[in-house]
Design a protein that fits this description.
The chain is of the alpha/beta class. The protein is about 40% helix and about 15% strand. It has helices at about 35-50, 70-75, 110-115, 145-150, 155-165, 170-175, 190-200, 205-215, 225-235, 240-250; strands at about 10-15, 20-25, 55-60, 80-85, 85-90, 100-105, 105-110, 120-125, 130, 170, 180-185. The longest helix is centred in the N-terminal third of the chain and has 16 residues, at about 35-50.
Length: about 260
Amino acid sequence: MTSSAGATPPVLVERRGAVLVITLDRPEARNAIDLRTAEAIGAAIETLESDRSLAAGVIAANGSTFCAGMDLKAHLRGERPRTEKGGFAGLVEAPPTKPLIAAVEGPALGGGFEIVLACDLVISSAAASFGLPEVKRGLVAAAGGLTRLPRSLPRAVALEMILTGDAVPAADLARFGLVNRVVDPGQALSTAVELALRIAENGPLAVHTSKRVVIESSDWPADQEFLRLREAAATVFASADAREGARAFAERRKPTWSGS
């Protein structure tokens, strides 16, 4: 993460077993994303990707707002809160190959909602809300909102959110499957970490391949679906982890994964 000398880091990074917790920590600015925050998130994602001891990530925030989107004051100073690799917030254009869970307390708006949409799973407080208010300001949700939201919700529901700019409560989005679980206020992070730790118990090669196939298969031609699926699965079935999983099951013990 980059920061000026003596400045408070805009993002906190903590390891909880095999899970990396990335916490936005600019509550005074509603966790809006400026350049330093984007660079810090991007650095944390690089750590998640490169460290073989880490199996999953959680992104959360301190304060009453998950993220209000782009820091408009920084924008007026000429900042662009993006990194070359990850795009906006150092994340939305290059999410990690490892599972990433959003733990949302309070509003996730604009770019904040687009951060959520770049995650694989969403745990939300009952008090949280989600919205893309860009049209209210004469803008468009160009950090993934216009493309990812219609893939996560029925088209008409997504269009209503996009075209009105109105925020929607977590419970409403849970009905459509965008939010995995709605929990009591204050419980989103602990629930997300618990879920991430459950994922971390599984074979890493199997988890990574499963996530990749789910993402990529939406564009596969129908006549190539099972050919490509067999190709992806072949590496997993031939792996040391597959043999270890079978042995551990037979010996009634927890497996020791190598990721190969």
